[in-house]
Design goal:
The structure is a homodimer of 328-residue chains. Chain A has 328 residues and is α/β, with parallel strands linked by helices. Chain A has helices at residues 12-24, 65-70, 85-90, 92-113, 149-166, 193-203, 223-234, 238-241, 256-267, 269-272, 281-288, 297-301, 310-322, and strands spanning 2-7, 26-27, 30-39, 52-57, 76-79, 120-126, 171-177, 179-180, 208-210, 217-221, 246-248, 252-255, 275-277. Helices cover 41% and strands 19% of the residues of chain A. The longest helix of chain A is centred in the first third of the chain and has 22 residues, at 92-113. Chains A and B meet through helix 5 of A and helix 5 of B.
Chain lengths: 328, 328
């Protein structure tokens, strides 16, 4: 029997993770008897789950909220709560408060619970912990020099998680997610938004704007793969991880041109033609500072799996988000 | 005309730095008109300095203390305040409060000063930001995986300093000091203490205990070199540093056997014989997790200079601490 806490449960990853946990009914072979879901907005209702569900509106940085979240001693914590990179860059104080102080409040609440409490804690970090200039291939021992406040907050949280794990308060795993593609939902203003938009909009019969050249290379994993990473991380034993608990995740590294070629293969010429090329120098500049390709050796050895091709990523979007159909 | 703030001014590095600044009377070719010295104990009086000196007892994490320290808008800040690694390991809350929250309070006080205030801020970090296992040579792009709370707090502070520099609140430089050798003063309980003790005690006519094998390799810089790093860092232009402002410092990498051979060359057989070999498995284990050798290419290109040989390090100790004489 296992009790799981998910922070940030109302976000895109949070909703997909809780749906998957509810559907599976088990984690690491143990029945899930209880799910505690928190977020700053009310997490959506879960269907088809026989265990207990509590869903709260909660800000981890508010007094006693982190203590409340862990009071019932959840066995596994998926800590997804955070503000996104654009918001962390625009509002410095909010970014540090939510992304750093929120993580620290949660870790301190766990530490102060005491009496042998040592949950598994899976933290969603990001490849934003890295900053240009990059070598041809980013290996597992490349240093962290983030170029955004968001990346800085993620890197600081990783270090804290690692120290608290070493001291035996939690069994932490930090998962550095690549860009999640195809992101469902409406287009947003994130500089990375077009990587999903150029697949999602054409499949929905809409035209998407491509603001960069087709030679831009980037690493992607599907939302389904991201959920898989989190669940796999929860099953890793402390001895498998050692002291280096923050891991680069695998992904599909390809150029924008290869993304579009995959779209043509999967959905046909007509769909792939729904692209308007409109170079945006600002987006080109931002994207130029991002990592292109990782050699995620440790994660792969530990059994983390992403897709093998971008075609698969498109098929997963059609299956999971479009009910198997698209606007041909 | 320049105004300098030194936090942690009563510590070993703090005292040597303020003495040097007082003696020089200038920094980067500008006359020092004012020195503000803070520490949790009263910083010692300075002699031979014609400018204004204020010395306060101050804890940067106490309300309004960081604001008070920067209220007069010092042009250059040497942020040395912190608790040492042994204390940070024994007292988790104190370590995070002083080493992380203290640095953050100082940076936030600078940020909130506003009206174009952007001081140069030199931060003493440590090679404790690294953790075993290590490659044969630690290069500038090796990742940070500290194995102590102290190293974690230093690494987190480096990241914060880097983000606040990128945002234009400070011109930060993080200086990762190697082991400072020969440390003056009494033997202490630090696991690294013997690296200094095996030189300092024999030169003072005392016997020193060597708790590890002579094959142990380590990187050292003299206190004089450390002060040189800090002063050199204060003279670097923002454009020279770019976005990667945290730097591995150079040093003399040698084995304990080479340290003792240097002692024999500099001070004679009789002095070098004042060593008692008494293996301490705990110290051997701790030291085994420390970095042995760095390729500090960036720092060297930027003009940072350490000693070339361990003989020089011993000569500097004899000159700076023993008035040129030792117990032959």
């Amino acid at each position: 029997m296992t009790h799981i806490l998910v922070t940030g449960a109302a976000g895109m990853i949070g909703r997909k993770l809780t749906e998957r946990l509810a559907k599976d009914g088990t984690l690491n072979g143990r029945k899930i008897e209880r799910l505690t879901l928190t977020d700053v907005v009310k997490p959506p209702k879960l269907s088809g789950f026989s265990g207990a569900v509590e869903a709260w509106v909660s800000d981890l940085t508010a007094p006693r909220e982190a203590e409340r979240a862990v009071a019932a001693r959840p066995d596994v914590i998926f800590h997804l709560a955070g503000v996104v990179s654009g918001e962390a860059e625009l509002d410095l104080e909010k970014g540090y408060r939510v992304n750093l102080d929120g993580t620290r409040a949660l870790l301190d609440a766990v530490r102060k619970t005491g009496r042998g409490y040592c949950p598994k804690l899976i933290f969603t970090s990001s490849i934003a912990v890295f900053g240009a200039p990059f070598p041809d291939m980013i290996r597992d021992e490349f240093h962290l020099t983030p170029l955004t406040s968001y990346g800085t907050q993620k890197a600081m949280s990783e270090l804290l998680l690692s120290d608290y794990s070493r001291r035996g308060f939690v069994e932490g795993v930090g998962i550095r997610l690549p860009t999640i593609c195809v992101r469902p939902g409406k287009p947003n203003k994130a500089a990375s938004g077009f990587f999903s938009g150029i697949i999602r909009e054409p499949l929905a019969g809409e035209t998407a704007v491509l603001p960069v050249s087709e030679s831009v290379q980037h690493t992607h994993a599907s939302p389904r793969a991201a959920i898989g990473f989190l669940i796999h991380a929860a099953g890793l034993a402390r001895e498998q991880l050692g002291t280096r608990i923050n891991l680069n995740m695998p992904g599909v590294s390809c150029t924008v041109g290869e993304q579009l070629a995959a779209l043509k293969r999967v959905a046909g010429e007509k769909v792939a033609a729904r692209i308007r090329r409109e170079t945006d120098p600002l987006v080109e500049k931002i994207v130029g500072g991002w990592p292109e390709i990782f050699d995620a050796q440790r994660a792969i050895k530990l059994g983390f799996r992403a897709e093998d091709t971008f075609d698969e990523i498109i098929h997963i979007h059609i299956e999971d988000e479009l009910g198997g159909k698209f606007a041909a």
